Amino acid sequence: MKVYTRTGDEGQTSVIGGRVSKDDLQVEAYGTIDELNSYVGQAVSLMEGEAFEDLRQNLLEIQHELFDCGSDLAFVKLSESRYKVNAEMVERLEQWMDAYEEENPELERFILPGGTLLSATLHVCRTVCRRAERRVVTLGHDKEINSEVRHYLNRLSDYFFVVARTANARSNVQDIEYVRSKKVFGNKK
Predict the structure, then answer these.
(1) End-to-end distance of the chain based on CA atoms, in angstroms?
(2) How far apart are alpha carbons 174 and 116 in whole angstroms?
(3) d(Cα 120, Cα 112) in Å, to the nearest integer?
(4) Per-residue pLDDT tens digits of the chain, which is 189 residues long
(5) Which residues contact 150 (CB under 8 A, 6 or more apart)?
(6) Who's near 177: CB < 8 A, 6+ residues apart?
(7) What does pTM read for this prediction?
(8) In the list 31, 145, 183, 189, which could disulfide-bond 108, CB 3.0-4.6 Å?
(9) 3 state DSSP class of 146
(10) Is residue 189 packed enough to be buried (19+ CB in 10 Å), middle (13-18) or exposed (0-12)?
(11) Going by CATH, does the domain composed of 20-177 fall within 3.40.920.10?
(12) Cα separation of 59 and 73, whole Å?
């Protein structure tokens, strides 16, 4: 099988039900989700040992769900019966976050992305996820979308923040506080 088709040489690409320009908002939205999925794969590749097995499994599931997000956005015309992303997926992210947050030290100030390479990569996932969410919001102004994709990406960026901190905590590396920040967060317990 050849990977190249030459059908996009004139700046058009196929979506489910038709063709659109490669710079269409729809392609930009699901393309940014694809970029995020690549960074998630990079984070998975950095997880060594039993200490991160639960996170590795979460992220592998998230990679499949990111494909679902892209699929929900890749239709010329959508119908709710074909949506893959749903509220239960968002609720599960919340449950995972609640559990991981228990492992993290109290947060009083903003933190700088970093610490371990894994944590820094998860922060990259967070920021790319926020960009994907912005692209989906913009797309939603122009066409009907599955709003659960927007909800999922919003919650997923929070998840990446929490697990970036968990990655540092499990590696006994402190988060780096933003020194110019006042105390902006209350006690978590």
Answers:
(1) 56
(2) 9
(3) 9
(4) 777 777 666 676 667 666 666 677 888 899 999 999 999 999 999 998 899 999 999 999 999 999 999 999 987 776 666 889 999 999 999 999 999 999 999 998 999 999 999 999 999 999 999 999 999 999 999 998 999 999 999 999 999 999 999 999 999 999 999 988 888 886 544
(5) 133, 136, 137, 140
(6) 108, 109, 110, 111, 112
(7) 0.91
(8) 183
(9) coil
(10) exposed
(11) no
(12) 21
Spatial contact of 13 and 28, defined as CB atoms under 8 Å apart: no
Residue 48: C-alpha distances to residues 36, 37, 43, 44, 66 (Å): 21, 19, 10, 9, 23
Q: What is the b/e burial string over 43-63, where b = at least 16 CB atoms within 10 angstroms of the residue's CB?
A: bbebbeeeebeebbebbeebb
Q: Where are the beta strands (DSSP E) in 25-177?
A: 111-112, 176-177
- Give me the DSSP letters along 104-145: SPP--S-EES-SSHHHHHHHHHHHHHHHHHHHHHHHHHHS--
Distance CA 151, CA 62 (A): 14
Closest to 145 in 3D by CA, of 81, 93, 79, 90: 79
